[in-house]
Design goal:
- The protein is α/β, with parallel strands linked by helices.
- The protein contains seven helices and six strands.
- A six-stranded mixed β-sheet has the order 3-2-1-4-5-6.
- β4, α6 and β5 form a beta-alpha-beta unit.
Length: about 220
Amino acid sequence: MPPKTTTEEAGPLNLLRPLLLLSYSTYYLIPTIWNLLINLQLATFLSFSDFKDAWFARFWAFFGPLSRENAAPSVIPLIQNSAQGVCLDIGPGTGQWLYLFERANNPTITKIYGIEPNPGMHSILRENAVKANLGGIYEAIGCGAEELQTKGGIQKESIDTIITVQCLCSIPTPELIIRELFPLLKPGGKWLVFEHVRTKYQGDFVGYWQSKCIGVALWSVHDRC
Ligand SMILES: C[S@@+](CC[C@H](N)C(=O)[O-])C[C@H]1O[C@@H](n2cnc3c(N)ncnc32)[C@H](O)[C@@H]1O
């Protein structure tokens, strides 16, 4: 029998995590608004999409490290030192997993494109790339994964490794993105994936609760796909 995950060990109280997450994210409205006001970034209030990006970047600076702690036991053996050649790092956020591609342990990586549409993440993302000694080969590109061939200039069959860690859940059309990304891989290339999955407890309250929370918070169930 496989060992219990930290979320299973937490028991039924784990079902409250989506509510906790919603409370935290709501709370982060306050510092987001305050920060935009004191930095006179008033134009951000005029676009819901820009405001949402600023809000999520601030929230993720707090919540990202917590989610990393929870996901690390699965993510580390999956992606540590597994990337090679030219890499596409999709939705890296603040780059909190970049240490797993640390230059000294990954000499075969020649380039990493960090595809992060939220500009609020870019400064910390670049800092984390430098910390992992990837500064010279890490390039943050401010577009969505769906725009890679148009805005990102990425050609078909040009990528050795695609990395998607906890990001397909943030993309409204994951199936479409998967179909668009796959042709970018060279034949024999690899795709390192770690995403949230549906709970195995389908047909009871847990499955029902998760389906109600989809799109809001799926941090309650992590597994390797
Ligand atoms: C839940 S965060 C995870 C960040 C990072 N992968 C991690 O594990 O810390 C999801 C990330 O996906 C990014 N994202 C959202 N839509 C995207 C898209 N269309 N293409 C690429 N990334 C996207 C978000 O901006 C965000 O940084």
